[in-house]
Fold Formate dehydrogenase subunit alpha.
Amino acid sequence: MDLKFVQTTCPYCGTGCTFNLAVKDGKVVGSAPYQRSPVNLGKTCPKGTYAYEFVNSEDRLTTPLIKKGDEFVEATWDEAYALIAEKFKGYKPSEIACLSSARTSNEDNYAMMKLARGVFKTTHIDHCARLCHSSTVAGLAAVFGSGAMTNSIPDIEESKCVFIIGSNTFEQHPLIGRRVAMAKKKGAKVIYADPRYTPTARQADIYMQFKSGSDVAILNCMMHEIIKNGWEDKEFIANRTTGFEELKAVVMKDDYSPENVEKISGIPAAQLREAAEMYAKAGSGALLYSMGITQHTVGVDNVKSTANLQMVTGYLGRPGCGVNALRGQNNVQGACDMGALPVVFTGYQKVIDPAAHKKFADAWGFPDGICEPANGYEVTTLINVLADKPGEIKGLYIMGENPMLSDPNLNHAKHALENVEFMVVQDIFLTETAELADVVLPATCYAEKDGTQTSTERRVQKWRKAQDPPGQSKLDWKILAEVAAAMGYADQFTWETSEDVFNEMASLTPSYHGMTYERLDKPEALHWPCPEVDHPGTPILHTQKFGTPDGLGILTPLEWKAPAEVPDEEYPFVLTTGRCIWHWHTGTMTRHSETLDHEVPTGWIEINTEDAEKLGIADKEIIRAITRRGEVEVPAKVTDDIMKGVMFMPFHFKECAANMLTNDALDPVSKIPEYKACAVKVEKIQEA
Ligand code: SF4
């Protein structure tokens, strides 16, 4: 028997835990702790522990598929490439769009970005960061000059007070939750604000239950109390920020007094006062947030508001502090860093900047040039264009994304995707989206490739190949390079290894410039920015100055605005959505894990006990949830953990898809949809 252990990085959440894959006779058969990672210190959550189970699922895609009529038939790679090249050569650049993937490696995302802008010459490339943290990128970049988590995961342990808002950290980022618990063990206080009494709430010294969509009011109220009592960090505000007087003029309005914010949020005024005092007087405070903050029509305002609080308290640029945006997917930070966004090349170099555009055009050497120096469609805009203007986009290439379960208002998304003339999906399973494709290409998963991913804390870590890919499946970047060759651009895609792709990317990306595979082999890997080969990496950002033109953080006066859709007589409840610890995103991988799927085999809707009594709904009863966009039948979970008037659904489950119900109204700046608040009604299902 041949047994070996291969160190790799977890393919699920953005924490970036390291573990070993156990490989027996050439096949991945289990996982084992890797003790030396400073991220997870040998521990994993259930998803990471069982991340080996889907790898050899019988449902893996193993051969290219081409749709004939309504059926897929197996094809050779040459047949698939020839069809893709024939179709895409027939479209103008503006008629092609590409969706890259927060699940695949940096190398894969870089290759997709180069294929889109260099081969297809389209400006339309995006990925699902649009749906989870585009407001973080837009909001933090505007006020700090960098749109990423400011501090590191181990650093959270140094905090004297951790303030978590809009993140169920202990379920969604469990090994970051463990750091919060370690901080608490050292004496830190924990303040938690969320509409649900989640496992994270159990850790809190102060738990503030609030109506989804009142975040800016709550944060303004905390600043109101802090400034009123003179607890703000005057020195930090004077030396490191701009705009304090304008901010003060807004937050000190009576609208944001604790009594008035109690009316908006449902949080008792006394608790708001207590939280403000506890936080301001702690001495160091790490603010953690996730999609409870970002997925709103005011997502960018929410993000800027968290930054305001951290600047007012001076909790930035030092240990135990920071705006810690917890990115959801394993490589959503990396996919953004790689320029899989409609406005930037790698490292956030703007496509419309003539110097950046020339730099990439020169380096890539396409004889007929690259895309226009213009911004493309965000994925949410793209879906609307597909739905409303059939024929404007004709060719769509999707790598490792499943919009047919992850997009809001799924009836609308399905209508949009059905309008695409020719769609290619590259994935490891036949997802709900792949079922709509004309060509499906079988790709490899994390266990079958070398590569890198960048976790939420900007730490760039390696995947290491543990087994051969199943059937004819291939590395994502290799498939993209072969598509490019079929389109006539073999000379621009001559990489032989993942390391070749990484080195080309790093040579064009200042924040990754000092990284090499060799340097990343250390257990602690490297945090970007790492501009030179002797640079140690940067675990904490903004220690001396911010990345803004004058180096000052920008305080932004913000008024609270209600969600786009609020409850009324017909739809009297607020619906919010999220995840559970056992599943991840659209379940493509976790629902192919026997253990994880056994633990939580289907979805549910949480209803407050009093609300359920009034509606005559019993626990576990199958009911119908209805919004203006769709309806689903779903088991009720009657619980006191959710506040009255609010309901919650996880979005992993296709048989009771929460996104049939969610609102596709967008934040005007980041174009993120409002997944976290819409109006819903529920009704009993009458027996026939
Ligand atoms: Fe994987 Fe996230 Fe769990 Fe760590 S916390 S094992 S990265 S899913």
About this structure: The radius of gyration is 24 Å. The pocket of iron/sulfur cluster is lined by residues 10, 12-13, 15-17, 40, 44-45, 47-48, 173-175 (CB under 6 Å). The chain has a mean pLDDT of 96.
